[in-house]
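A note from the maintainers: we've had questions about how concatenated examples are separated. There is no special marker in the raw files; a new sequence line simply starts the next protein. For clarity in this README we add a label.
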Amino acid sequence: MATYYRSRPHPWHGLQPGPDPPRVVTAYIEITPFDSVKYEIDKETGYLRVDRPQRYSSQTPALYGFVPQTYCGERVSALSPDAEGGDNDPLDICVLCERPINRADILLNVRVIGGLRMVDNGEADDKIIAVLENDQVYGRMRELTDVPDVLVERLRHYFGTYKMKPGEESNMSFAGKYGREDAEEVVIASMADYNQHFAHLEYR
């Protein structure tokens, strides 16, 4: 029997991590490659909030959001040797797809294929890379090595520079990329971190 909500579920806390995590997960999309403004989930209400206009012309090369019911805490941090802790946010995810999707606040079923190990001010800020399930071009990819190098480099450059301010060095550092197995391990760790950190939530 189907379950219906009387009100909108919180995208972080009210949705499942996916139909078959860590292999196939749900991605809640906050930003698209067409956005010149950075949107971010409001953690209290679950609605999208304008975080900031992008200072420079750089725009995300892929759909960008997070996996519901994940949290970057001590287990995720332990997988990132250069990090001193997690960033206490849901696990970020980038989704590759052939067709242009120009709106955010949507849900996608995606297949995990790898990730970028980013560190933000000493905190683990991994970016999982996934492909839209059943996508006619990217859907056949199973490993990060299947993705053109130039696209991975664009993602790396974007996340290395998107928080930069004039006259200041970037606080983001790149600590390497990894394939599907390591990415799935990060997803599992983030789900465990979430279950520990939010075990007190009444509707869980």
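[label: protein 2]
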Amino acid sequence: MPHGPLHGVTVIDLTEYIFGPYCTQTLGDLGADVIKIEGPEGDRQRGGSKSAVNADMGATYMTLNRNKRSVTLDLKTEESRARLRSLIPTAQVFIHNVRAEAMARLGFGYEEVSKLNPSIVYVHCVGYGSDGPYAGRQAFDDLVQAASGASDLLPRVDGNPEMRLLPSYVADKVSSMHAIYAVLAALFHRERSGEGQFVEVPMFESFTSFILAEHLWGATFEPAVSHLGHTPALAADRRPLKTKDGHIAIQPVSRTAAAKFMELGGIPNGYESERFLNAKGGKAKVAVYYEMMREAALAHTTEDWMRLGEENRVPIMRANTLDEVLEDPHLKAVDFFQLREHATEGTWRAMKPPVKFSKTPASIRRDPPRPGQDTDSIDWKA
């Protein structure tokens, strides 16, 4: 099997939960040798959901920890600390999401680690940047979503004034993506200069920059020229449309494309229709527009709309339920969901690394490890 682009890079991974493991799994997919250091109790994400066989191999753990080797060390003991110190000179990346004070007490702060390996890329995944008043506070997805303004988005769409979280651990995963590019950029600098460095990836700042990319909106300028919140993104009617047998999403790129969609759905000349022309004011016209789009969508099945959209160059896509995603024909064709046989957990479903490399393809080489299963196979130098 061809090696991934990070083949030859060793990552010492002391992360758990989601912010961190999502990053290091991706580095593993790209070919890095990821050595997951766990305490005797294991990554706390291991439990919390039904498992095929073992309670410490929960579903979310399985989706975040392939392409890693698991080593169990009790860093409260000098023997385990010595083992970890012996591993550091062999690695290029050291990444953790433990509080800085706790790591310093254990002897694995940046200063201590860089003495053992001056060229190490030392990445600290934190909740809040060390320069601000929130530094050192606990951070989880819910807390960061709330602080970033993300919990104010749904109330702006559906009229329910209650602040709510987005139904995904999106802050954890987005912040992990920031950690990925941080690691890669620091490795690139290391490759050119031989110089390691300390890298801090703050969850709050990372996710806020993601959320406000469009929602900063009028406050992009000082003084603000309008409100915060991207108006098109927060449109209440920005949602899938019902078809005869399911749902589709449509995003017309022009008035011509929208008119064509209405025509295909049995509403020719929608913009010249009496109900549209007689609508008083811009908001009323927008309401009529969405009314006609909903009516048009009901004229065909989802599969027919997929064909008609392609034939007429109208941007249309099926809207899948979570269950339907597993059967999506495109994902099936690209072998996205891959059934694999785990040594202890039986058959499990992995999601293929999505990015394609022509020379150094990403791959799944290791199934998610049991706690400490690779401890004895590591070439300990001490």
